[in-house]
Write a structure and sequence with these properties.
Blueprint: E1 2-7, E2 13-22, E3 25-31, H1 37-58, H2 61-82, E4 84-92, E5 96-103, E6 108-114, E7 118-128, E8 131-141, E9 149-154, H3 163-179
Antiparallel strand pairs: 1-2, 2-3, 3-4, 4-5, 5-6, 7-8, 8-9
Helix pairs in contact: 1-2
């Protein structure tokens, strides 16, 4: 088991954990930092101070109630649907690839792609805002034409690791795919 520190495309620290279960099975987990209590406090205070300022001028208590409600609902939605704690990629030779995301609320999403549908795993590049970013993706075979690609499934969409992290995962995935 290896655990190294890497950064995402924004320069924030992430970690890559590589586990080799056998020669044909490896798991890669990219973990992001936990929710910062400082950020939560700043957002909460700014919403509530704005609400108190509006309350001061309007003397309407519904403004304060709405601010509390909006803050709580916003935090719950962010934790349940947006904040991903870790993403994992499980590559099992001759069987397939499992992609999982675990959210801060404990919710998990999992997708499995059969090996027969996989054409290749590649590192692709894209233009994002004013920079070029790299991402790991699975190319799926087109059922009607074997040499064509029907779709692209991006991996590690939330953590967005930099190229040095992606290369490590890519080389290991290619090693397993070459044995199949």
């Amino acid at each position: 088991m290896e655990d190294e520190a890497f950064t995402d495309i924004n320069g924030k620290a992430i970690s890559l954990d590589c586990q080799s279960h056998s020669g044909f099975c490896r798991e890669f987990t990219v973990s992001s930092p936990k929710v910062s209590i400082g950020k939560v406090m700043v957002y909460t205070c700014s919403v509530w101070l704005t609400a108190y300022a509006v309350f001061f001028f309007t003397e309407n208590t519904a403004v304060l109630s709405c601010a509390i409600f909006v803050t709580l609902v916003g935090m719950m939605l962010h934790i349940h649907f947006v904040k991903v704690d870790h993403e994992s990629l499980l590559v099992i030779g001759s069987l397939g690839i499992q992609v999982s995301s675990s959210y801060a609320s404990g919710r998990e999403t999992t997708t499995f792609i059969e090996m027969g549908k996989i054409k290749d795993i590649v590192i692709n590049e894209a233009i994002y805002m004013h920079q070029i970013i790299y991402y790991l993706c699975v190319l799926l075979k087109d059922s009607s034409e074997p040499d064509a690609v029907s779709s692209v499934v991006p991996l590690f969409q939330s953590s967005k690791p930099r190229l040095n992290c992606l290369v490590k995962v890519y080389k290991s995935c290619q090693e397993i795919l070459s044995k199949c």
